[in-house]
From TrEMBL:
UniProt cross-references to PANTHER family, sorted A to Z: F-BOX DOMAIN-CONTAINING PROTEIN-RELATED (PTHR24114:SF2), LEUCINE RICH REPEAT FAMILY PROTEIN (PTHR24114)
InterPro entries hit by this protein: Leu-rich_rpt, LRR-containing, LRR_dom_sf
Family annotation (Pfam families): LRR_6
Name of the protein in its database record: Uncharacterized protein
Length: 247
């Protein structure tokens, strides 16, 4: 990282993923983050930085004014590490895309994020696939969506949400949300009841901004599919807005 700091040109993209830098190496990454004036995109994907490394990088991001995209995917980050990242979002208004997929942050971790994102930060894209948030985590996300005004893309794939989680999110989607455009709930064991609740939410809220709802690899059958199709058609007839629903 010292060579990067001494580099004369402007580095805007840095991908050091799959390099097993661990928490020890993340210290050097953090130091670079503090001094860079040009970096826009940084990936630490699958680098095993853990909670300690996440804390170091998160602390550095508080001082950074350029990085807009940060990839922490697959780093064995738990609630402790993501809480540090969440705290950063209170002060950082530059970061717009945050990738946290494949980290076992659990319900406690997503709560820490959502508590901050209700009223803070400028995050537009949040990826939380395979994060083990469960139904209780979906409740925190649903509550956050009632207040957040910046998120446009939300990935919640493979989090064991089931019908209860889908129903919980659907309740929030009935409340005006003019920012969320893309929601991915694939691989969540959602059955007909969950699909029906989501369909009803689409029909009930003409001001909903969602134009893409991804429900691939769930468990709903003909009933759920028909409900979603009818909801899509209803929205188009009433407002002229097209919603792409994938299942």
């Amino acid at each position: 990282m010292s060579a990067l700091s001494a580099h004369k040109g402007k580095i805007t993209v840095l991908d050091i993923g799959n390099n097993n830098i661990t928490s020890e190496g993340s210290l050097y990454v953090a130091e670079f983050i503090k001094v860079t004036k040009s970096l826009r995109w940084l990936s630490l994907y699958m680098d095993d930085v853990g909670d300690e490394g996440a804390e170091k990088v998160a602390d550095a991001l508080k001082q950074n004014k350029t990085i807009s995209t940060m990839d922490f995917g697959g780093n064995n980050i738990h609630s402790r590490g993501v809480t540090a990242i969440a705290e950063t979002l209170k002060e950082n208004e530059v970061l717009t895309t945050l990738e946290l997929s494949y980290n076992p942050i659990g319900p406690e971790g997503v709560k820490a994020l959502c508590d901050v994102l209700k009223f803070n930060g400028k995050l537009q894209t949040l990826k939380l696939g395979w994060c083990q948030i469960g139904v209780s985590g979906a409740e925190f996300v649903a509550d956050c969506l009632k207040y957040n005004t910046t998120l446009s893309t939300l990935d919640l794939r493979a989090n064991g949400l089931g019908d209860d989680g889908a129903i919980c999110l659907a309740r929030s989607l009935k409340i005006i949300n003019e920012s969320l455009k893309s929601l991915d709930l694939g691989f969540n064991e959602i059955r007909d009841d969950g699909a029906f609740a989501l369909a009803q939410a689409l029909k009930a809220n003409e001001d909903l901004a969602v134009t893409s709802l991804m429900l691939a690899n769930n468990f709903f059958g003909k009933f759920g599919q028909v409900a979603l199709t009818e909801a899509r058609d209803h929205v188009y007839e009433m407002s002229g807005k097209e919603i792409d629903i994938y299942y």
